[in-house]
Amino acid sequence: MRQGVKEIVLISGKGGTGKTSIAGGFAMLSGDAVLCDCDVDAANLELILNAEHLETREFQASKKARIHKDKCIECGQCGERCRFEAIHDFQVDPWSCEGCGVCSRLCPAGAVEMYPVLSGHWFWVFTTSIGCSKCAGILGFPPLCV
């Protein structure tokens, strides 16, 4: 770690408390910062910093259940144990399924598959709002802000 480098982490379990606004304010005051907005539901720090999108990538971190009819013996254990009531008539409602995997673990026939789903997107952005010079070479991008 470089001499003088400081790290500030803002966390809270409640949405709408102003964490992004505070982080954006600190970034503007610092004049030299590397930022990461890790908000699970609404990562939007780039809106405050007027950032330019350089790259977008898919993010897969969750799974959903799928029942293979050719393997299913229709024992009903999956539907009985699903706490989200996502399984009806040996079909999974993807909107109700939370991806916990209980159905997959309980199925005696191995008919339930857990498959990855798109959870969202992550963005690599650039802003001149804070005068950052630390991004050189990260993810293959040149230092755009110097």
Can you walk me through this structure?
The structure is a single chain. With 146 residues, the chain is α+β, with helices and mostly antiparallel strands. The protein is built from 4 helices and 6 strands, in the order H-H-E-E-H-E-E-H-E-E. It folds into 2 domains: 19-56 and 123-140, no CATH class; 62-117, 2-Layer Sandwich (Alpha-Beta Plaits), CATH 3.30.70.20. A two-stranded antiparallel ribbon has the order 1-6. It has a two-stranded antiparallel ribbon with strand order 2-5. A two-stranded antiparallel ribbon has the order 3-4.
Give the H and E element order: HHEEHEEHEE
Cα-atom radius of gyration: 22 Å
Numbering strands along the chain, what is their spatial order in the largest sheet? 1-6
Number of domains: 2
Largest sheet: 2 strands, antiparallel
Count of individual beta strands:
6
Per DSSP, what share of the residues sits in E-state strands of 2 or more residues?
Answer: 15-25%
Total helices: the number is: 4
Helix-strand category = alpha+beta
Low-confidence stretches: none
Distance between the termini: 21 Å
Portion of residues within helices: 10-25%
Looking at how many chains there are and whether they match, the oligomeric state comes to single chain
Shape: elongated
Mean pLDDT across all residues, rounded? 81
How would you describe this structure in keywords?
single chain, 146 residues, alpha+beta, Alpha-Beta Plaits, 2 domains, two-stranded antiparallel sheet, 4 helices
